[in-house]
Amino acid sequence: MPHYDFKQLSPFDFELLIASLLSAEWGVKLEAFKSGRDGGIDLRYSNPNGVRSEIIQCKHYASSGYSKLYSALEAELPKVKKLNPTRYGVATSVGLTAANKDAIKKLFDPYILTTGDIYGQTDINLMLERHPEVEKANFKLWFTSTAILERVLHNAVHCQTDFQIDKIIAKFPLYVQNDPYPAAMKILQDNNVVVISGVPGIGKTTLAEMLIYRYLELDYRPVAITTSLAEGRKLFNKSIPQIFYFDDFLGRTFLRENQGFALRNEDAALVDFIEMIQKSPNSKLVMTTREHIFTNALMGSEKLRHSPIVEHKCILTLGHYNNFARAQILYNHIYFSELPNEYKNTLLENAFYKQILKHRNFNPRLIEWLSSYRRVKKTPPSEYQAFVVAILENPQEIWRDAFFNQISSAARSLLLFLYNIGGSSRLAQCELGWLALYAHQSKKYNFAMSEEGYNAALREIEGSFISIERSAVNFINPSVTDFLTSLLLDNKGYIDDMLASAIYFAQIIYLWSVRNGEVGVFRSAMQQNMASFTAAINRTVSRPAYEIFETNKIRALRINDISPEKRLHGLVGIAHITQSKEIWDTAKISMDELERYWNDGYIEFEDSITLIERLEKITTGIVATSPSMHDRVRSDFFDHVHACNAYIDFALIDEYAERAVPELTDNENKAVGDSFLDYAKSGVEDDMHGLTNDGGGLNSLAIFMDKMATIYGGHIAQKAAMVREHLAGYEEQQEQGADHYYDEWRESRADDRADERAIDDLFQTLK
Predict the structure, then answer these.
(1) Rounded to an integer, what distance in angstroms lies between the CA atom of residue 678 and that of residue 662?
(2) How far apart are the C-alpha atoms of 470 and 377, rounded to whole Å?
(3) Is-contact 208 225, C-beta < 8 A?
(4) Is the bond preceding residue 662 a cis peptide, omega within 30 degrees?
(5) DSSP letters of 89-108?
(6) pTM (2 d.p.)
(7) pLDDT the model gives residue 748
(8) What is the pLDDT of residues 32-91, one digit of tens each?
């Protein structure tokens, strides 16, 4: 007989278990009610003619004991009398003596017919023995049974690599099982290999650990690969059952933008290792990877594209976690936490838990933090709701603790660089900027640089501080930016570090542009050491803002920094505020680069107009005394206006023309007109069809073309009418689809309401 105490189950889990057991025991299907506001009913069986009704009340009081159980049952008595069932039973996780059962039967006389309708801990374990299929179906029970634990721990002892089984066991009560588990298990059973792919934080590692635990129970020995496939090859033994685990297997070799992965033949080594595992009857391989890295690896490696690896992939998406699954994640963290009841009750007041579930910053890491009594105990229960809201809105305390106590110096430098570049960067650009800052801080603060380097720093904070998508690094949400802003306000030495190590002018202009209230605090700090500030500007501007290269015989542009227009605009602004002749001279040199950029056939019209108007508005100081800069930029701009080929840019030019100081000359107006008429030959149709599914864009195009029709008439008026007709067709199509969309919306609202009721009922069990 198994010997479960059921403490690893929540009340919700316990009810599901009892429903499955009694259905198997009685050979009938029990009607299960949502947890919580059940009116005294958890499970019910009614015979077909409705004459006989049997009710089972589930009470999960394993951690409370008999005394509290009996008090809770006394509170149920009025409900039972009102229901007046023909038969009533109680199932509890509390161990019951014969005297306990007699007392409960007497309490509910005449509704409990016999003490056989009272199921205590021992009775439930006996039913599990009679129905092992129910035990195995409940993963939280099965995986933590004494027999399984002993077997797993025995096999884990033989692990020759770092595999911490205790951490996996600790996750079981919190784990919410969903569709990907059986799907991944089937792939692993059928092919010996499974690749779990998905975005950061989606649960790849947890799913992998659950699969591995299952195979440890089947007497497999774990081999955790931490650095390279050479580890796995060295420990491979085809004569004994082994399960290999390679977490983030592509991220360790294919994280950067270069294609060295294939050049180093690591793709071939990976394919060979997979084939070796597939051919072995005693071997399994579980690998996890981030979806964008997996996609990039396939694009960069013909060997991978033609290997069976794609067939072994199980993709995790947010769609696997519906509203109720999110609620279970929060519920499990709260139920199994050490939070006193006063804190739990606070979450229930006015259904406050719904605010948490719907918050834009909801994620399991935040939930884990907010449910840790060690972290929140300084906050009294009366202020807990406000504290939770503050953390969700701006989780700075969480970021601060992690920044100083949980991540490496390499990861800290990476976060500081990413902040310095505006919170988003290409992977290759980020690596160069990070290395410069990391090396500077290592020397300044006297710490050794990690040998693991850039990839390790990225992996360390991906999913917590940053996300990586399409070869770009971004902060995971705006609260990270808010935290780092406050960090720099308190530690202005970091600003000095950024200036001293900056390699992109974008870093300079971002710090210069950050404002706090009416005073630019960072700007003031930068100006306190003008020599360092000016040196940083000269150093970064000396690097080309762009480069032109050929790929597959096609001419292409790469922006290495911010665009030449934005670079010059930033220099003009800094020179005007600081009145530094040296910075103004640098701006003049930057103008030469802008001219080359335009002559090469590239121009950013919106940025160019912003630059021209910036020069027009400066009427005093060093910039105003050099009007030749404005004249030169404006003249060159209209010399290149023929490159304009989109209505949105013509609209910007038209708006600028109405406020230009001085007004546009005849030659400038002619240049714009000639360019527009050339564009109108085919560009209007191109823009119109490109905006087919964009009602707002089509409307803007129609308004612009109507205005142009009043100026040019003739065929331009015909073009304007064509756009209006296209817009009318779009609007008619939208109206026809409105009823269909309304029906879908109404159905989704009904599903949402059902989910909300289930979520409400679930959280009532915390009372």
Answers:
(1) 26
(2) 41
(3) no
(4) yes
(5) EEEESS---HHHHHHHHHHT
(6) 0.63
(7) 47
(8) 665 444 455 678 776 655 545 788 999 999 888 999 999 999 999 999 998 888 899 999
